[in-house]
């Protein structure tokens, strides 16, 4: 089993696909208590894309390493396929998530605290509101283009585990290279949002460092 640690180096919009009432046009993903999290499927998709980028970089640079797409597909799976990949990603949550979640549920039932312990109140501790609009060629704001976004704050740290169904060196190598290459994710990641740093932590001590292998193939 491997633990993934994801640090937000800039505000990030991990879009939920919807808004929040009539106020927020694009909202982040959060649970029933208001605590934000990052779905495991998003993590898997981002790492798969990062692995494919590494494969393309190796090919363009003519580095003597081979990352076959079939191995990447075995590791992360294929979108829409019913086959089970070698890795199973759990949701990424903040530190002491379960404990905080239990306390929030308890306080929601207490009459004197319930008016203050709301989803919106909890979310305000971890998010900021941003507004964007489209600018016309003449420099004026386009009509009806104002959008209100809720973003996760810079500096938040999320973590979660990855279950390995099939242990092998190639799988570890692909996962580590993908983590090293993962730099941005989420909505508007090309507009200054979603810069991240991904770190892998082995819980069993069998994660062989990829740096010596990478250095060797780059100097061959």
Task: List the SSEs and their pairings.
Blueprint lengths: L1 E7 L31 H22 L7 H8 L10 E3 L7 H12 L10 H6 L2 E6 L14 E6 L4 E8 L4 H13 L14 E7 L8 H9 L1
Helix pairs in contact: 1-2, 1-5, 2-5
Q: Can you tell me about this structure?
A:
The protein is of the alpha+beta class and 220 residues long. It has one domain (2-219). The protein contains 6 helices and 6 strands, in the order E-H-H-E-H-H-E-E-E-H-E-H. The strands form 2 sheets. It has a 4-stranded antiparallel sheet with strand order 2-5-1-6. The chain has a two-stranded antiparallel ribbon with strand order 3-4. The longest helix has 22 residues, at 40-61. The radius of gyration is 20 Å and the shape is flat. The two termini are 32 Å apart. The relative contact order is 0.26.
